What we know:
The chain is an all-alpha fold.
Amino acid sequence: MGDLGNFALKFDVNSQSLKEFDIALRSIRGKKELTQTTDIDIITKLLKVVSPISESVKGNLIESTAISERSVVDIIKARYSREWPNYRERIQELDTKLKSNRFTLSQNDLQLLNDIADALDAECANLFRRMSERE
């Protein structure tokens, strides 16, 4: 597969994950508490993006089939370079929280989820631009 095909595949996978992540984010607005039994679909969509990012910031080598986690982490790291150690820890804490049975998302958690969505959106835009350059 050539560069264009590679970029197209990555774009398709990342944009689908972004769409599902965005739907999940919209679904949790106004909810007081999330549980693994009643909100499993929402939590699964969030974890599909958050977990690979969390593993990547821990330094674990993984290749997610849902997102280009290394690129997304690089985007987040560039945006929050001054506070990266604290930000990295917040990502890991959010991943742990999403995996618990019952939890409430704080405003900081919601902001972090929005930041992740923005970074994933930026990665999709980057992949689209790279595809356009190859045509």
